[in-house]
What does this fold into?
Amino acid sequence: MSMLQGAECSSEPPAFALGSKAWDANILTHAILIVEPLAEVKLRTYALKYRICNVKEVLMLALERGILFTLVYSDEYLAEQRAALPPLNANDKYKLLSQPYLDEAYCNPIVSYSLTDTTKLPWLQYQQRVRDLLCRPHLVTLLSMDAFVSRLVREFHPLNLEDHFLCGPSSSLFCFGRTYPYDMGYGAEYATYDELNLLLGVTKDAFRETRSWWPSPDLFCLAGFWVDEWTASHEEWFRE
It folds into this structure.
C-alpha cells in the first residue's frame, strides 16, 4: 500500500522547472540511470501519465521534481575521457577543483553554536561557508540526491548550477578519477559525510551537544509527509 501511495502523481507543476535547458549528449549516451524501487515506480507512473518514452525526458522529470537518482559511468569511458585531456599543471588542477576542495578546514564545524548569541552572524557565516562548499565541482551531484538536499543546494548555490549538472561529469570525476565505486567497473560522483554535514550546518554547542541548522535527510523522510518528490507543501514548510 505504501508503495502505491508513494507512486501517486502530483498534479502540481515541477518544483524545479528548468525551462528549455537540456542534457548533454555525453550523459544520454554514456551514463546509466540508477533509481531506488519506489522512485522507479513513481517515474514509471509519471511516464505513463505524460506519455514519456525516452531517457532524456525521464531524467529531466526526475531532476525537476526532486526524485532521487544516480548517474553511473563506466571506468573505461572515464579513462578514455581523461586520456584525451591535455596535461595539467598544478595551477590548472587548482582552478579545476576550486579552492575550497583542498581546504582541510572544511572538515571542521562551520561555526560555533551559541545559546546566547542573538545576532544573525552565525547564520550569515553558515551561508557563506555553504556557498564556498558548493563551489566544489563534484557537488553538483547533490542535485540528484533526495529532494530536501537538492532544495538546500538550490537555495545557496549560484543560479548556473543546473547547467553544470546537465553538462555531465564534473572535473573532479573526469580529471582526477574521484568516484564512488558503484559496481565493478563503474563509478559515480559522490559527496562525503563531512560535506553533507557542512551543508546541513551540523556543529556542536558549548556543551558538546550536536546542533544543526537543518534536519538530516533521514529525519526529514521520517517526518510523515514525504512522498519522494518536492511539492508545494514542502516548499511552504521550507520557507517557514
